[in-house]
User: What shape does this take?
Amino acid sequence: MMLDRVAKIIDVPPHAINLLRHPEREVSLTINLRVSEDKLVQTNAYVCFYNTVRGPAKGGIRFHPEVTLLETRKLAELMVWKTALVGIPFGGGKTGVAIDPHQLTRAEKTALIKELVHLIRHELMLGDYIPAPDMGTDARDMATIFGETHNLESVTGKPPRVGGLPGREEATGRGVAQSTKLLSQKYDLKPQKTTVAIQGFGNVGSWTGYFLHQQGFKVIALSDIGTAIYNPDGLNIPALKENYSVRGQPLSEAHRGQKIARDELLELNVDILIPAAAGGVITTHNANKIKAKYIVEAANNPITEEAELILKDKQHIILPDILANAGGVVASYVEWRKARSGSLTPREETYNVVDNVIESAFNNVMNLSDEFNVDYRTAADIQAIREVVSTMEDRGWL
Ligand code: NAD
Assistant: This one.
């Protein structure tokens, strides 16, 4: 457990540990909705408000068939640490809906999002929970939420024309690329000579690839749910991205490279591996076969605790999710602030904020790692827990 690991290194008041071991509140919902004439959706959804000492619960909405209450809770907790690490005034929350979004038409998905808004209307209207996109949801879904609440502050990740922020869509990938660049500089890796494999080519994976390609890194392998492609000379990421996300072609039809088995990507002989799809993809079954020296966690929780022990033994260097993928929530904060003030923010400014906040969090983590002689995940957790506990003290919670 992360709390126990950190409490062995720094003093964490026992009352804070008691509070942080459990979510403040969580709701388990049964959805029963006729989405169209001949289709009834019956499924479960979970909303977790893990901790709000630093601000309203912030966290994405995930549509995935295997979502559970436990997974939603873990993701909500992760948001507590992520927002604290990068110093933005939000707490941690998350929503999980156990459904495969690919089985829904756009109209059916919209109906489901509206039903979800109906079920958590109170929290959304009061600003107690501020959602954003996560796996299986996108800017259009956030626009639907805005349409239901008529409140620009109630949701982030909206399309720029619907009160959204230019650059928010790219922001998570932008932050992953920025932290990968900083890590490469620290270990003296030259982009042109550094090979990268990215698992997942959705929002986060494709933008990460795009910005790394722009910086000159050699992205030589990519995968999505169906397949993986590989080209040792480097893939043309902007062209692939255009074919995949704009023209909707599957990776296999859009590639100029060799097709490989989907999960083979994780075990390729590359310098940097970036899991940017689901959680729990590096397990005790494949940890021993991972060859990449550096792993940058673009996805949330991509490495199981047991697998991490194996990787540590093998001297892999892991840049943790709460640092690597925090760019999205940083941009969400800028979007939320913009909704309150009515100001306009150009795309370049969003990029600059993400780059600067990630750089400053990266430097903090490196310093703490040296100071306590711990790995980067533990260093990031130390910084995050200190922030949360200090706020609890400021608010008289302890
Ligand atoms: P997305 O739905 O846009 O894309 C997911 C991608 O992963 C798709 O290309 C899908 O085909 C692929 N995929 C799924 N299972 C796979 C598998 N087993 N092997 C290979 N590819 C697989 O989701 P996203 O928003 O890009 O989120 C990806 C990850 O990043 C998630 O873990 C999410 O929690 C995390 N994250 C997202 C954001 C954000 O702003 N969207 C922010 C922080 C963290």
